Amino acid sequence: MTSYEAVIGLEVHAQLKTKSKIFCGCSTEFNAKENENTCPVCTGMPGSLPVLNKKAVEFALKMAMATQCTIHEKSIFARKNYFYPDLPKGYQISQYDKPLAVQGKVGKVRIHRIHMEEDAGKNIHGTVSSYVNLNRAGIPLIEIVSEPDMRSSQEAGEYLRELRSMLRYLDICDGNMEEGSFRCDVNISIRPLTQKEYGTRAEIKNINSFRFVEKAIEYEIERQKEVLESGKRVVQETRLWDSEKNQTFSMRSKEEAHDYRYFPDPDLLPLQIPNTWIEDVKKSIPELGAQKKERFMNQYGLTEYDAGLLVQEKELAQYFEEVVQICQQPKLASNWILSELLRETTATQIAASPISSKHLGELIKLIQKGTISGKIAKTIFEKMWNSGQSPKTIVEKEGLVQVSDENVIRQWVEEVLKNNQKFVDEYRAGRTKLLGFFVGEIMKKSQGKANPATIHEILKKKLDSKGE
Amino acid sequence: MIPLYDYSLDELSQKLQKKEVSSVELTQSVLKRIEETKAKLNTFITLTKESALQTAKTVDQKRIKGEVLSPLAGIPIALKDIFLTQGIKTTCCSKILSQFIPPYDSTVVKRLKQNDVVLVGKLNMDEFAMGSSNENSCFGPVKNPWDLERTPGGSSGGSAAAVAASQCLGAFGTDTGGSIRQPASLCGVVGIKPTYGRVSRYGIIAFASSLDQVGPFGKRVKDVAHLLKAVAGRDSMDSTSADMKVPDYTQFLTKDIKGLKIGIAKEYFIKGMEASTEKVVHKAIDHLKKLGAKIIDVSLPHTSYAVPTYYLIATAEASSNLARYDGVKYGYRAKASTLQEMYRKTRGEGFGREVKRRIMLGTFVLSSGYYDAYYKKASQVRTLIKRDFDEAFKHCDLIVTPTSPTTAFKLGEKMEDPLQMYLSDIFTISANLAGLPGLVLPCGFDEKNLPIGLQILGPHFKEEKIFHLAYAYEQSTEWHQRKPTV
Amino acid sequence: MITCFFFSVMVIKKFMHITKELVEHLAKLALLELTEEEVTRYTRELDSLIGYFEKLNELNTTHIEPTYQVVPEAIVFREDSVQESFKREEWLKVVPQQEEGAIKVPKIIDVG
Q1: Which of B49, B64, B351, C76 shows the smallest number of beta carbons within 10 Å?
Q2: How many helices (H) and strands (E) does chain A have?
Q3: What pTM, to 2 d.p., does this model score?
Q4: B8 is a catalytic site residue
């Protein structure tokens, strides 16, 4: 049995978050009625002409720089000619020979090129007719093409997630696969481990989640293995992912392969990027996810896993640092955010959380000072979530200050032990696990307010002493 | 009594300003003239009589109030049916747009409206500006006012003929390979193709984007100067429009050309030119010499390659520009049960013969495997042609050439062999490839009383120099006084 | 150098023949439905035209930069602001068939 290796390259299309379209002043706003965000340019009216949105270039440059690409001082817009109802001009303005940027990298994966282009409209298929909405036509895109450096679905997933994180940190794209602002096509082939040349590759389209990217890759690897094992050849073709059947199937188009007849768009002049602009954009690039993760590990002593989770979203990382600034307890802050806060909300919604970073920071401080117990803190957290009030307010209102008075606690300990003589005897006989039971009972008596450390001290003394 | 429509635009502008005549009177005179001659010439596709009279009335009222108005205010003008006019049918003389009513105005139209021009109608042309005789129109050919059995030239045949026949005081056309200059020559009027980028292309139906330019026709050099000034200048909606100040061209119309260096290129006097044309052009050059200009021999060695270069580039760009005519969003849509069928039938039935021929040629030129040998090659030769002019203009101020190898040819004469038709552009095409401005004005007639035009080419954005020479020549000759007897 | 020159002289003769199949392929690419008669005619005409256009092979353009645009400047930009344009109702008037604001076309058949 031959051993095969998968060779995977990804093509990502990311919609840029500009206010207006790439070649005209129409709004890019998502919730408009069909064909409302339109004008002569993006509807391909006779006589219309494109004018380039500077912001779109700026955003594209940001991504090019963040991925360490070489930026072409002069790049050309080219027409990609084909017919489809959602392509009003009968050509897409894209870049071909001289793209904006080349030769970058994201982690271990090399970037082949990044170029700018316009999005097409949307087609909805009915039974007899199709319906075209041109609101999306003309929204700026960057196409990020990787080298075929990935070897597994896992590597592909990691790369995609990193790419998405970068786009969101740069604040140039929403990175939403389900809504279509972040799209991915997979190019995949397999080859025997001993072979140097790449195998024939298939292109997989119509994948709309990260999970499906991984699944599609896994499916394709198996499918191509079967093809080769049965003595046949892998066909170079475009396949679509079927998310219900969890498989890819051939498009088997009756048309011939597209001849796009690329040529430089005569309505647009060459795009010149002077060095001064590159320097300005460079300065504007914030700390990205990967760097932040490293820093969190070093500066706050977090594990790679926890740091990785916290930097998933820029807002979450920011929230975390705000909390730490207040309470100076990075590990606690990390725990509270990752286990408690993210149970109630998602990383992307953190800014809208009823518990502000200030309040969470204060809560943690109260725990640290011993004012409240860890257990009570959880109750307070819930109340904070529901009311939006500060922890101090809630503690005062509900009298939840932790009890650390030894005398009070001794009283509770004695009461509990008195009422559970049988278990005390069993404990002393060796069933040390019962300690937890006693602690629990004392906590109940104290309505959760007793300081657990103090309980432990006193309880142990009492239990062990009587054993003499 | 000279009918009002027989005056020049400049003369009428003065009369209107002096309130010797009203715009309504003038417009009525022009509309009557159109009625009398339109069947014979077939120049108009759409007439906008009511709105024209309405505008004329408004302008007259403004003038009575004492408002300061543009020199073009109240002047009846017509437009090649390639300019998008909001609410007014714009067909490009193609079946595929024969019922199209644009929802927006081209920038040129907007600017003309700002100048209070009276728009009388839309003019016949070769379909999608592809042609040199105005015989490729889905609305039938235009007849040359000098001889109704002959073509007016093309593709702006309707515009040239309308001005020649005094159906309007000025008209606008477009020039991609000579489509303003060649009809100007064949119809005995003045026409200019400005420098590429001088006038906005926004709202002009595109044929070949790196070659198309908008330009005016008029009876006199001064008329054309007025018209160009009104529309030229940067447009933020057109990325290729130049950010260059627009001079007042009428200020450069003086008669003294002593010392002006005029280049004559030997490559422009070729075998196959009509003898009368050659003779008349040489006489005109002699006349310029007598006026004090210095005649300098220059060479434009790549001239004979201009026609193939042009047709490879223009058809390539056109094949892409015309892809939007697919029946989906506007225009003609054929009945069909599948999308593929709809596309193929719409375009097969909607486009005329010449248009389809050029689309296929252009598709070929750009297609995989042929791009380098044809499109790229032609673009490289374009560089050589441009360099020829850069070099020549180091030695002279302007270059003077014949415009067309023949005078107006008979209808149907060149329709069988496309190459024959293409070769009639030989003298005008290079200016489009290099982006240079070129003006044509009458310089004589042949033995059949058909007009012959002289072409003046200048360096980029030096239209004022061209106007200067043209005016000096015009004012020292009488060709512009002759009228066709239609 | 001498062999280069010799080679370029050799390549002056016409080397492209436009066939009926090519014309049919081009018509397919350009989505033009042609009659048999049109295919025959265009084959003849295109062949003659391309034959003439090959005149360009007489010129050596080895190190010549192609000219795709005669404007000397670089690209101009737009600021990223929303500009109002025509209203949907206005431009839907020119659409041959529409339904509830969407452009309606016959169904696309592209999956076998």
Answers
A1: B64
A2: 16, 17
A3: 0.91
A4: no
